[in-house]
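fwd from M.: "can u put these together and see what the complex looks like"

so here's what she sent:
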Amino acid sequence: MALANLQSSQFDLNEELFDQITGIVNADTGIQFLPEKRTLVQARISKRIRTLKMNSFEEYADFLNGEAGQDERKSLVSVLTTNVTRFFRENHHFENLRDEVLPPLIKRARAGGRVRLWSAGCSSGEEPYSVALTVLGLEPDIQKYDFKILASDIDPEIVAKAQNGVYPERAFETVAPHLRKSFFKSNPDGLGDTRIASKELKSIIAFRELNLMHNWPFRGQFDVIFCRNVVIYFDAPTSERIWAKFANQLEPNGMLYVGHSERVGNADQIGLETVGVTAYCKTGRS
Ligand SMILES: C[S@@+](CC[C@H](N)C(=O)[O-])C[C@H]1O[C@@H](n2cnc3c(N)ncnc32)[C@H](O)[C@@H]1O
């Protein structure tokens, strides 16, 4: 197929190739692609094909299946994942964190204890920075203690973006002005109107590339896990497996926050208790 045809034709990604290519992504990430996503997937893959100067979806699928295509699988995941996020998204979680969950954790940290929070599927960083701002709003000297937030995502490009911590001024509409002013500085290297996360804010967050489908390299447990608007894209057996892994990774009384349209179906069987619409607490029973 000529390149020109690839750009003009709407339905070149036939069902078989769609299944083949999305099957690879599903195996790598757990993300499922329903048939109605074919046009969207086609548009996004077409861009990769043009970048790689290939001529057809078939050639691209063959490339992905070969040894040389291993790195391309990462780029494919990057173009097919949804990264939509914003500061203090679903703010009721941050209110619960501030009012109920953090006070005893900060007390523990001040007494020399260890506290760990995790934003799993952190996208471009607004979620872990919102967690960090909530913490610093309560304890400005938190850096003195053994208190860390892990921010992870499957996509190395988005993790790098999160780590850079540069956002346009309009992204701060949902951030309290005093927190924005204290922890996001005007960006000296920035083009346009941007702000950059301060060293202080970044210092309590560790950014890592991590695929939730792979083994998790943790020795310790977490007190709080945010995994919001990530599992919604997974197939049902994968979602169930991942919820159970999160439950296992939580300290007793630890909290799991999930996205507005997600539910942990079998919560009580995996030792979680529903404590809010999309908030679960580890009971210690399972
Ligand atoms: C819609 S964003 C959610 C961002 C944030 N948690 C929120 O709710 O605003 C979904 C993120 O999940 C990540 N993701 C998808 N599959 C993943 C996997 N298997 N392991 C880790 N992250 C994954 C994507 O790269 C994307 O950044």
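replying to her w this: The longest strand covers residues 250-258.
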